[in-house]
Amino acid sequence: MTAVALQYSYRIDLRGGVIPPSAFQVKATVGGQTAARTVIRVYSSTTADVDDRSQPGRPGDRLIIELDPNDSNAWAAGTDPLPLDRAYSVRQVADVHTPEGEPVLRAGPFASRNDDVITPVVDDFAAGSYTDSAGFELDFRLYRPEGLVRNPQTRKRYPLVVTLHGGGEVADNNMTQLTSNRIAVTFAEPERQRRDPAFVLSPQIPLPRPMDGPDGTDWTDAKVQAALIELIDTFVSEHSRNVDTARLYLVGLSSGARGIYSLLAKRPDVFAAALPTAGWGDAATMERITHIPIWADHSVDDPVVLYREGRFGTPGTWTLMNALETAGTRVSRGEWANDLPKAEFEARSRALLRQARATRSHVLFTSYPPGTTPVNPHLAWAQTYENDVVTDWLFAQSR
Q1: Beta carbons of 201 and 271 less than 8 angstroms apart
Q2: Cα distance between residue 161 and residue 5, in whole Å
Q3: Which residues pair with 294 in a beta bridge?
Q4: Which three-class secondary structure state does DSSP give residue 202?
Q5: What b/e readout covers 372-393, taking b as 16+ CB neighbours within 10 angstroms?
Q6: CB 224 within 8 A of CB 160
Q7: Per-residue DSSP letter, 81
Q8: Are 321 and 328 spatial neighbours (Cβ–Cβ below 8 Å)?
Q9: What stretches of 26-67 show up as alpha helix (H) in DSSP?
Q10: Which H or E run includes 45?
């Protein structure tokens, strides 16, 4: 939770004044525990949105109270989203005046509680479910391009990005595939959609966790994969007027990347490109996908999905890239720290892409040295989907 918005029945005009953070107290009740949140900025606005400018705000009927995201009780979700409706209380404890001393907002004993929770971008995804021909059901979230929403009769065609979550997001909430890792939401953010308007389809594997055999992990479970294939095929068929079938993309992390390698091998003529991160797969099937553009990445010191050995006796990304080379594909390789500043990280990606183009390589592989992936070495996707170079490359691919 990064901010609280209060709506007033009148317009707040500070006339150039600034509201001190100490004028408001915010408390959060999370997990049965009530504690204060740290207020860092307060300003008026016309909308319930955070203003990233150095001098934020404009006269309006909303008051935005920004909170420190590093507070220990700032969490909004774990395995499941936390129940935050009415969990936040806000009380004004000091009067607010214009620079000339005219009162604008008066303190008082009353506290307001939130009656709604706004999750930017996530709220733009519609919820749905798909039941396949065998009766197996997959929940999903779907983002529709704004141009299609405004004009449902348009015949414009858009790419489809299918995102496959990791094992930690297997659940029955149809939500954590969006909120636990920044994968689907990055393709639906306004700036990205302005550059590359697209459908974003984000299914979720249900509980109890399906798994057939030692490496039938989640997206490669027979029941799950059959439903996933039907879901994609049916979606494309029913939206044939607006889906660009030459630009279907797969994006996935951890067991989602495992699903990508498996799905590409089984449907080698369907997808235009893929971004598998921290995955593993069957090296023997790599010869079937030598023609598909792939940009893979993995942390060398990943303790969950081993860089070379993979998981459940099935090889990791390094070994899969070697198998692609053995099958005749030129792989462009790069290695740099996963904790570089965004600009430097993207500069390294740009250099690797230039190398790939110079050698006519359509498969790229980024490795992250030990100790450079923030939080946990398994989380190689820390900057993957925020990387404009990689995402621009993905949308440039066409079958």
Answers
A1: no
A2: 32
A3: 274, 363
A4: strand
A5: bbeeebbbbbbbbbbbebbbbb
A6: no
A7: B
A8: no
A9: none
A10: strand 39-45
| Cα 304 → chain centroid | 21
DSSP SS3 for 301: coil
Cα–Cα distance, 175 to 324 (Å, whole number) = 35
pLDDT > 70 in the chain, percent:
100
DSSP helix/strand/coil, 63: strand
User: pLDDT tens-digit profile of 123-167?
Assistant: 999 999 999 999 999 999 999 999 999 999 999 999 999 999 999
pLDDT at position 21 is 97
Residues 339, 374 contacting (CB under 8 angstroms): yes
Distance of CA 126 to the CA centre of its chain: 15
The rounded Cα 154 to chain-centroid distance in angstroms is 27
Structure tokens at 94: 């000091």
Sign of CA dihedral 264, 225, 166, 125: positive
Q: Residues with Cβ < 8 Å from 50, sequence gap 6 or more?
A: 2, 3, 56, 64, 66
Strands (E) in 218-346, as ranges, are 243-253, 273-277, 294-299, 331-335
As beta bridge partners, residue 41 has 66
Q: How far apart are CA 148 and CA 140, in angstroms?
A: 19
The residue behind tokens 């302005």 is: 194
CB within 8 A of 191, min separation 6: which ones? none
Q: How many secondary structure helices (H) and strands (E) does the chain include?
A: 9, 18
Q: Which of 55, 54, 51, 24 is nearest to 38 (CA)?
A: 24
